[in-house]
Specification:
InterPro entries: NT_sf. This protein is of the alpha+beta class. It is 56% helix and 10% strand. Helix 3 links the parallel strand 2 and strand 3.
Length: 256
């Protein structure tokens, strides 16, 4: 019998602290984006496990045509305004995707899975209803882990360049979360369920790789602090990051 992956609760109210923010972002995006199709909530707020003042606002926004330059500027301004006016979040992270890409057969294991199992529709036609439930499979892991090598290189370059403490802490957080999520993707095909939180990612991964406890502890330091020297964060990216990439490639060669 097939073991379908869980879906996020789309009926229960979100945490009260975040409701004004969610209503504001939907209103602002409706006003600023002409080609808006639908808005989806992701991350800890969607899981109802957000921490006020710490969690990010993570959105996936589907559009019917590319944003104009003017719209890009307006959206950047909206994101900055939301961050200032709603201190319940630490940052605004919006992923933009074209409707044609979401509906493409080639993207079903990325966007189909993402909208069906990792998103809650806030506005517009809910595209998740066009997809059936997904089972654990290597194709999903590949869809979300294929860019790990390039992503880690890009983050390392950003860390090396920045002279801003705020930016540095943000990049460390991004690096830690990217590596932790990628660690889960290494074992996702073999687990019963799905990891929605950082701790769940760690637990699933360590059940398979118990000798990586120290590395996982260091990832949590990158994500949550305290601030570490640049050489420490770069070491994690180059050493443990390289191990993740190599392990991913090994599994890909075995499974194909």
């Amino acid at each position: 019998m097939a073991k379908f992956l869980p879906r996020l609760d789309s009926q229960t109210s979100f945490q009260l602290d975040f409701m004004p923010l969610l209503m504001a972002v939907v209103t602002d995006l409706q006003a600023q984006v002409t080609a808006l199709h639908s808005i989806y909530l992701n991350g800890s707020i969607a899981y109802r496990q957000a921490t006020s003042g710490v969690s990010d606002l993570n959105l996936t926004v589907v559009i019917t045509s590319p944003l104009t330059v003017e719209e890009q500027h307006r959206i950047a301004s909206v994101s900055q305004t939301l961050s200032r006016h709603y201190p319940v979040i630490s940052a605004v992270d919006i992923t933009w995707v074209l409707l044609d890409d979401v509906l493409s057969i080639a993207s079903i294991f990325k966007w189909g899975f993402w909208l069906k199992h990792c998103s809650v529709c806030l506005y517009g036609t809910n595209l998740s209803e066009q997809f059936g439930d997904f089972e654990p499979c290597w194709e999903i892991a590949k869809a979300f882990n294929h860019d790990i090598a390039a992503a880690l290189v890009a983050i390392e370059q950003q860390i090396r360049r920045t002279k801003s403490i705020t930016e540095y802490q943000y990049y460390c957080r991004c690096a830690g979360k990217k590596m932790l999520r990628s660690c889960f993707m290494l074992v996702a095909i073999d687990v019963d369920g799905w990891a929605y939180t950082d701790q769940q990612c760690a637990n699933f991964f360590l059940a398979r790789y118990p000798n990586k406890v120290t590395e996982i502890e260091r990832l949590f330091v990158l994500i949550n602090g305290p601030q570490v020297p640049k050489k420490a964060s770069i070491f994690m990216l180059s050493q443990f990051g390289a191990w993740i990439v190599n392990e991913f490639n090994n599994i890909e060669r075995k499974i194909g």
